[in-house]
Specification:
The structure holds two protein chains of two kinds. By secondary structure, chain A is mainly α. Chain A has a domain of 112 residues. Helices cover 69% and strands 0% of the residues of chain A. The N and C termini of chain A lie far apart (96 Å). By secondary structure, chain B is mostly helical. Chain B has a domain of 112 residues: Rna Polymerase Sigma Factor, Chain: A (Orthogonal Bundle). Helix content of chain B is 73%, strand content 0%. Classes of the chains: A mainly alpha, B mainly alpha.
């Protein structure tokens, strides 16, 4: 086998020729200089400051990420609390209680906190207000209930009609211009003071 | 140096047969990631000659190869925090070396000059040169120089992709699967490129082979 390999007539293969390239190696002096240069460059890399635009980009990226995280958490918190208020049994019970009280006076409490319902008050006419509504208004200490009422039957007393018409118009105009948005979002929130504090 | 020794000692008890090179490298990488910058020297010492050889055979220029090898280690050092150990460190650093060489070769396409390393004396006395000298009836020293020039020239005639597989397989002795992982191609692609590249080299070097 060895004789066959040393045979001068034997062809040289491509693989053998390429293997010659493995022997092209630098000497030890080369590696000494290589190490010195590399260490120097590594030190430069460690102490080198990034260009200003890289620093700005990094700062912006950090700020955006921070803002997004805070906003996301706030939104999540709001959603969680909002949902718990709307669907909580305590809230429903209080709403049912208010509805019951209101119906005793012939008042219907709006079940939904939509703006349209509240704005609808401005459309009330003196004829559509029941006479017992006034009594309810006077006896009730909760103003927000008044904002969410609508008349049930026509009134017969002109004096009452006039008085109430003025009052109701006053309340309605007040609501629709200044507080329509607030009332809409807080008509249910009044049930739970925690949410009210968040909304305002 | 003290740092290197302490790192070596740190995992010396686990350095049995069961611990592979990959695991060993991963231990060092984790040390570097933890802030032990000196541990990176261990990786440099281990891979510098292999990386230099790959880049040298890709560029056929010893000065460029030296600079690019340093660039490779600097890039690896800067990116080592992002190295998750999904592939071996060996594959990762080879990939950086190949990419660094490719980028360099694209820029250098017009300016091409060659500067060689010396062929090891041991090899120049080997039987392959005995056979070549006998066949070509030439003086050995002249033959070695001529062959070296011809080999480098032939490699440079190949496209960088074909050169990469020849260098990694025929010169560095890597397996097809390892080359596929480094170059992010399939084993089939590696085999096909190797086959084509060898055909090309056969024709360039037929004076020595035939």
């Amino acid at each position: 086998m060895a004789d066959q390999q040393n045979d001068p007539q034997k062809k040289v293969s491509l693989e053998e020729l390429l293997r010659v390239k493995r022997s092209e190696r630098p000497d030890q002096a080369f590696w000494g200089q290589f190490d010195r240069e590399l260490h120097q460059r590594m030190l430069q890399t460690l102490v080198k400051k990034d260009p200003w635009y890289v620093q700005v980009m990094r700062g912006l990226r950090g700020r955006i990420a921070q803002t997004a995280t805070v906003s996301g958490l706030a939104a999540l918190l709001l959603l969680t609390v909002g949902r718990s208020v709307i669907f909580s049994p305590a809230g429903s019970a209080q709403m049912a209680e208010i509805s019951q009280e209101s119906s005793d006076f012939g008042i219907e409490v709006a079940s939904s906190p939509e703006v349209q319902k509240v704005d609808g008050i401005s459309n009330l006419s003196s004829e559509s207000i029941a006479p017992n509504v006034m009594a309810a208004i006077e006896s009730s200490s909760r103003d927000y209930q008044m904002m969410a009422i609508e008349g049930k039957s026509a009134a017969s007393d002109a004096g009452l009609k006039r008085d109430f018409a003025l009052d109701s118009l006053h309340v309605a105009s007040y609501d629709s211009t200044a507080y329509s948005g607030d009332v809409a979002s807080s008509s249910l929130s009044f049930v739970n003071t925690g949410v009210a504090s968040l909304v305002y | 140096m003290a740092t290197i020794r302490s790192v070596t000692d740190a995992y010396a008890p686990t350095q049995d047969a069961a611990v592979s090179e990959r695991d060993l490298d991963w231990v060092i990488v984790q040390k570097v990631q933890a802030g032990n910058v000196g541990a990176f020297d261990l990786l440099v010492q281990k891979y510098r000659e292999k990386i230099f050889s790959v880049i040298y055979n890709m560029t056929s220029n010893r000065e460029d190869a030296s600079d690019l090898t340093q660039d490779t280690f600097i890039k690896a050092f800067q990116a080592i925090g992002r190295f998750k150990g999904k592939s071996s460190f060996f594959t990762w650093i080879y990939r950086i070396a190949i990419n660094t060489s490719m980028t360099f070769l694209k820029k250098r396409s017009r300016r091409r000059y060659i500067s060689y390393e010396k062929i090891d004396e041991e090899v120049s006395n080997s039987e392959i040169f005995e056979r070549l000298t006998a066949k070509n009836q030439t003086e050995k020293g002249a033959l070695i120089q001529e062959l070296q020039e011809k080999l480098n020239d032939s490699l440079q005639k190949l496209s960088p992709k074909h050169r990469t597989v020849v260098v990694l397989h025929e010169i560095e002795g890597l397996e097809h699967a390892e080359i596929a992982e480094i170059t992010k191609t399939s084993v089939g692609t590696v085999r096909s490129r190797l086959h084509y590249a060898k055909q090309q080299l056969q024709s360039y070097l037929q004076d020595y082979i035939a």
